[in-house]
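Quarterly update from the structural biology core.
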Amino acid sequence: MRRYRIVHTTGLGYDGPVRAAHNELRMTPLNEPGQTTLENRIRIRPMTWSHVYRDHWGTHVMAMESLAAHERLDIEAISTVERAEVAPSSATSTWDTVRDPAVQDRLYEWLMVSARTRPGDGVGALVEEVRGLPTPREAADAVCRRVREEMEYRPGATGVRSKGEDAWANRAGVCQDFAHITIGALRALGIPARYVSGYLVPKRDLAVGESASGESHAWVEFWDDAWVAADPTNGTPVGVEHVVVARGRDYDDVPPFKGIYSGRATAALRVVVTITRLA
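Predicted structure, tokenized:
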């Protein structure tokens, strides 16, 4: 078991006054097998009102509005989370299983191709390389491995609006791109797959009481008669160093912060994540 304190600070500075800022925050880690959120506090300045709900995908969302004129919006999300190892599910599906019309219908949302996950010709070639493997699990593992081997993790190579097929063409990107490429390939194979957003502890040997600078992280889950997590960016098992915040079809369903405001000012965003191991 591991216990972490995660402090996610977001500062949005404007070069002039704005008002009527409406935002959605996805900064509350989930409660699920292997993960318990003991505490979550979100502080916002300025704020007029807020409303908390779960979205269609089961993510905790805080919708908030700042109606008074302001030149800066500050958000601090503080969470205490316990993580424990969960035994991985065994491979049980066959290609006939995942192609069953009842399964395809029930999991249709995780098979939809979006602009971000569209395979394109390059990812399509990767799909054809693994299509003949004996089981969906073997094909999914091969996709994750190939993406990890072929892609270079390079901050700045892509932007927040980038598509997986573009990152694959350049063979460079960040975790968001690795996840989109993998999901696009898996869905092209007929394997339901979803995007997972959260945090990754930056040091595997982080000592109790030690803090480290982190950032939001993305990985995937694919269906093999149960959801199986995989981290194509790092090529390591998803375990106690991963903290789940949100799931969706792609990044557009899970951004930690998004919104609109009224005014002509230009915004500059600054994000800092600090993770401390408590136990």
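The chain has six helices and 14 strands.
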